[in-house]
Design the sequence.
């Protein structure tokens, strides 16, 4: 091996060693003053168990295959695998006088197996999770706790195996038992306040429903109950108190509750904001969302309950309710203002929860990030109660105002009735006098109009006589115009046959292909049509203008067939003019002169002139007395 190769290998080895050292797992330092610590980012390493069959001894042998966590909180990105997590804790001194533990926050994790070092090279194995009965837990608490058996001085390595069908955040927390008890008491006290407020809202609105019998109160009560059901399922409270020995319900209950929350939220929105009367398009859109959400729920329930974990689909019903509230408020429905505020708060809670789920809410207080939805639900329920109360208050105010207005209007109507009756009597008398006077005036006017009508009838009779004379003169003038036009055409034809015209003058007579075809058709069949194939004399129009199709054999003959213009390759009006010039010059005109007059190449004019001169010479030899004269005789 060459020296240069050794240098390269030495450089690569040093680089690899430096990279491994730079990304080494952080060891968490703990002493008696540390009551709580959350393991984040480089404090955790993980290993994917794709076979789900690795034993603890095999995992320890694969210690070098652990991957450094580079996000704030790790998660099981692929729920088909089991994940092994490793943390390292260095106790500065023995904490034997205080009991401490590890706690897992996410209550939806199916199975967590902890391997707790006892400081003597062996490990104590304990399990917990949402798939196991609640009564089997170390503490009857909604989270998963594992005691640290030997928190003696020195460095300890702990392993945790996490398996879950749904995506979960792996949040591992070190706590002393004293701090854990304090935290758990405060947490359950908060739960008591939250669910107590929900009960108060339920009873209040249920009483309002029994008193007023408005359906929005009943829908609101059901909506609140579904919110409580969902929060209990997500927090693990329902598993602890309602079905502790039936863990299979954990896979369904939160999804069912969330579906009912969405459905009754939209039904309550339609009823409270009177959407059907105020905006039929939004009413139709809400109904479509309800149908789609129901189909998605049934698919999740019957075929793939793992889809329940994707709570972001609830943004769609929440958004349509929020947009509906804004739209109805803009239309002047005042109770919608509290509805918009309620859903704005709930939107904020969803955003905070989403940021927390993505691991970007570490800068927020713990209570705010983990219980934002619950807190926002309480504020939302408060504002929705205000909206219902505001609607009742406005309706009652409008009803009282309408009643007062009705009474006032009735008094005004009675006074107006008496005043109007008096005024009507006076007006009837005055009007009677006016009518009599007007009738006399009308009688005088009618006599004047009758005299004017007689005068008009006489004038109209004279006008009719003048119109008849004018019409007669117009007929005579029209006949003169027709005769004059015919004379002009005859003069033009005669001139065209006898004198030389310019191309512009000639084009006035034959301006385009259609006029030329018409001229050829009239000339060719001036003595009647006869089919050249079968001699039949009946025809119909052909595909080409001015062509004729035999009705017997269907042979179609064009106007240019058997004429000097057959197989013509230049514009036909110019071909007409060439024939005219050759004839008028008696064949003496040159091809150069033709080219100058018409604007066509000299070679084309020469070949065309030769063809015409040949016909002209044949005509001279075969000319008979009384035969047709003029350039037209060369055509056929």
Sequence:
């Amino acid at each position: 091996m060459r020296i240069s190769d050794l240098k390269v290998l030495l450089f690569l080895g040093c680089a690899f060693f430096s990279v491994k050292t730079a990304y080494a797992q952080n060891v968490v330092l703990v002493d008696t003053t540390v009551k709580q610590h959350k393991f984040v980012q480089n404090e955790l390493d993980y290993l994917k168990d794709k076979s789900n069959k690795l034993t603890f001894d095999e995992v320890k042998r694969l210690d070098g295959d652990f991957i450094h966590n580079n996000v704030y909180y790790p998660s099981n990105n692929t729920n088909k695998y089991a994940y092994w997590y490793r943390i390292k804790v260095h106790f500065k001194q023995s904490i034997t006088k205080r009991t401490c533990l590890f706690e897992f926050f996410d209550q939806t994790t199916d199975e967590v197996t902890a391997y707790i070092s006892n400081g003597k090279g062996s490990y104590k194995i304990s399990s917990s999770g949402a798939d196991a009965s609640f009564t089997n837990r170390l503490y009857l608490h909604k989270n998963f706790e594992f005691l640290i058996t030997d928190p003696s001085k020195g460095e300890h390595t702990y392993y945790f195996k996490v398996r879950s069908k749904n995506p979960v955040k792996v949040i591992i927390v070190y706590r002393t038992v004293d701090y854990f008890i304090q935290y758990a008491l405060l947490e359950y006290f908060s739960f008591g306040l939250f669910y107590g407020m929900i009960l108060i809202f339920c009873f209040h609105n249920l009483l309002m429903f029994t008193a007023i019998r408005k359906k929005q109160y009943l829908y609101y009560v059901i909506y609140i109950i579904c919110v409580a059901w969902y929060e209990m399922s997500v927090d693990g409270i329902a598993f602890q108190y309602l079905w502790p020995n039936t863990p299979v319900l954990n896979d369904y209950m939160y999804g069912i509750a969330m579906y009912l929350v969405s459905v009754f939220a939209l039904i309550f929105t339609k009823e409270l904001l009177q959407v059907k009367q105020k905006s039929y398009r939004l009413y139709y859109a809400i109904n479509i969302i309800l149908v789609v959400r129901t189909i998605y729920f049934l698919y999740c329930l019957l075929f793939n309950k793992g889809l329940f974990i994707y709570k972001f689909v609830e943004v769609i019903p929440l958004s349509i309710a929020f947009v509906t509230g804004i739209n109805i408020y803009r239309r002047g429905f005042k109770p919608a203002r509290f509805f918009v505020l309620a859903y704005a708060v709930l939107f904020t809670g969803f955003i905070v929860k989403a940021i927390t789920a993505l691991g970007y809410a570490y800068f927020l207080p713990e209570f705010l990030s983990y219980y934002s939805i619950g807190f926002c639900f309480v504020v939302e329920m408060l504002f929705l109660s205000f909206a219902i109360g505001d609607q009742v208050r406005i309706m009652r105010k409008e009803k009282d105002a309408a009643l007062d207005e009705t009474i006032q209007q009735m008094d005004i109507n009675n006074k107006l009735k008496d005043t109007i009756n008096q005024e009507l009597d006076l007006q009837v008398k005055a009007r009677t006098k006016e009518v009599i006077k007007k009738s006399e005036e009308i009688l005088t006017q009618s006599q004047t109009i009758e005299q004017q009508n007689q005068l008009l009838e006489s004038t109209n009779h004279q006008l009719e006589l003048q119109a008849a004379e004018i019409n007669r003169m117009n007929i005579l003038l029209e006949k003169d115009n027709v005769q004059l036009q015919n004379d002009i055409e005859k003069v033009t034809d005669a001139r065209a046959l006898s004198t030389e015209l310019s191309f512009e003058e000639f084009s006035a007579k034959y301006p385009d292909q259609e006029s030329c075809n018409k001229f050829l058709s009239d000339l060719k069949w001036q003595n009647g049509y006869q089919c050249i194939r079968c001699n039949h004399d009946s025809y119909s129009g052909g595909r080409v203008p001015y062509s004729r199709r035999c009705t017997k054999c269907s042979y179609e003959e064009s106007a240019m067939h058997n004429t000097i213009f057959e197989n013509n390759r230049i514009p036909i009006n110019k071909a007409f003019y060439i024939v005219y010039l050759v004839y008028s010059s008696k064949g003496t005109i040159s091809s150069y002169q033709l080219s100058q007059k018409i604007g066509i190449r000299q070679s084309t004019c020469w070949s065309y002139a030769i063809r015409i001169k040949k016909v002209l010479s044949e005509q001279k030899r075969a000319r008979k007395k009384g035969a047709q004269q003029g350039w037209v005789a060369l055509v056929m």
Notes: Confidence is low (pLDDT under 50) at residues 1-22. The longest strand covers residues 82-91.
